[in-house]
Structure formats: structure tokens, C-alpha cells
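Lecture 7, part 2: worked example. A protein chain together with zinc ion.
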Amino acid sequence: MGVLGSNIDRVKNILAGDYTSRTKSGVGYSKTTTDHSEGDIWEENGKKWTIKNGLRQPITRFDIARIENIVPLACPECSKPLTHYLDTRSWKTTKKCFDCVVAEETRMRADGTFDAYSKQLYKENALAWLEEKRQQFELFINDEESLKGFVTENGTIEDWYGKIDKTTIKQKFEEEYKEFKEKIDSL
Ligand SMILES: [Zn+2]
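Predicted complex, written out as C-alpha cells:
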């Protein structure tokens, strides 16, 4: 496989989330972490930011979801204590206790709306995942600070991309994005 071929493979990995691994072997990166350190949360340009694995990044829907996964004492629908492991598990996806989820699904199975509901839920999750990938990609490609040491004066990114310009990477990303989006939309 030629240099271009392996670059395209690398770009494909963007959607798989591999690109953040660049920080592990990245050079000249520590500059952005002078004011903040790993795990810090702060606001800048109307966005909430954090540092994760040494990489400055916006707090995304998935981070918010992780925060929301902290299980409260009681189910907001029926006030039952959320102590059973099945409650902990159902809280993560539904924000309800397990009994409430079972009751609701039973009702939906009975009135024939369950299939549409679970399909919709799956699509929403897939779309949220894809938007998170876009957010991460745009952060990576637009953050001059994090690209320092990787981009030459004429805009060529030299690192594990080999030599590939920003426009080409963006094009590749858009192609991959479109392909995934179409797959999700057709579900
Ligand atoms: Zn409940």
C-alpha cells in the first residue's frame, strides 16, 4: 500500500475515533495545558472545555451523559429507591427505575408502538455518536493550538498523516460522515 493509501486509512480511522491517539506520541502539545490540567472543566468562547488524555476538548453530549449516569436515590417517576443493579442499569439509558421501564415497554408492546420506539432510540444514539465524532474532528482540525508542531507554513499536516493537507482531510471526513449519516437515516 502506498503512502496515500495509508493516509486514507488513517482518515477513515477518524470516524472510529483513533485520531486522539496522536496525543500519545504527539510533540509540542503541552503548550495548551499551561492554564489547565487533566480533568479541569472551564468555560471559554461559550463552550465548556476539559482536558482529557492531555487533549483540550469541548465537553460533549457524551460527557454530559456520563455525569447524568450518576444514579440518584429514587426513581423520579415512581419514587422507588434505585438500589437494585437493574435500576442502576436502566437509569443509564432511560432515567427511570427498571420496574417503570418494564411497565412502559409492556404498555408499548400492547399498543404496538414498541418497535418504532426502540428503532428511534437506536437511531438517536447513532446520530449522537456521529455528531460527537464531528465535534471531535472539528476541534482537532480547527484548533491551531493543538495542531502546532503538526502543520507546516503552507498548511500541510505532517505527523502520522504523513503529508496530507487540511482540505483533503476535511473532504475525506465529509465523505465518511455522509456515508454514516445515510446508513443511519436509512435504518
Ligand atoms: Zn420507577
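The chain has a mean pLDDT of 73. The chain has eight helices and five strands. Keep this in mind for problem set question 3.
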